[in-house]
Amino acid sequence: MNEQKIIQLKEHIKAVFFDIDGTYYDQITHRIPDSNIQAVKALQQQGYKVALASARPFSSAIELPVLKDINWDGIVSAGGQEVYDEHYQLIEENNFSQNELNEIFRIAQKHQIPAYVVGDDNFFTMDSSLLEPFKTRFHLTVDKIHPYHGEKALLITLLMPIGFSYEPYFQHMPNVRIQYTGGTNTDLFPKAVTKPSGIHTLMKYWNLADNAYMAFGDSGSDIEMMEDAMLGVCMGNGSEQCKQSADILCGRSDRDGIYNFLKSFDII
Predict the structure, then answer these.
(1) What pTM was estimated for this model as a whole?
(2) What is the SS3 assignment for 216?
């Protein structure tokens, strides 16, 4: 997409959504760049609705300092399973049924596929050499390791080497959507639940058109959001999949990429 097209789109964009990990929250420095906070405040001053859209459930997202300096207009979490308003009150929730959860974890246990679970409790279902790198990357302090025993699960992240294919294990479950991220972690979501589905709920809540938004992301879990947004912006540190699905690239998350992009197009 050329610069002139972006300038033309500006007047139609009413909201801006940010992925968290690798986008709003920098995973290299493990902090939120000051420039991102400035950018979000400037967007709100310009009248844009501004929200987070993350694969992290709300309970996991707030373990990071994402709510510290910003009064978000909404949050889409757990990959679209949870949608929160400006008061962080839940306005929509779409999860797997208990029978579906039981089957997912039965399969994972049978085939020795470790899972990270976030819900009523946060834990890993079995040990693996992939746990520590995963915890470091996502700034997690979870140490519990035990099998699944019927707990509520808002996020199911499977951990296997890059290139591992999950389709043969879950193809008999029509409501399971496999979300590859490009790394060793792969998320499972209900079929109809995506970041865009959660975003559309917020856009309707704000009385705005479904795709009248700009989105910033960096990984495979942001591809649908990149494609659905009026303007999809992939971080310079993003995966190749995400870059290919975006309309345009910006700078890296650790080098003021978001702020510089918004400033360069006079959006803030």
Answers:
(1) 0.88
(2) strand
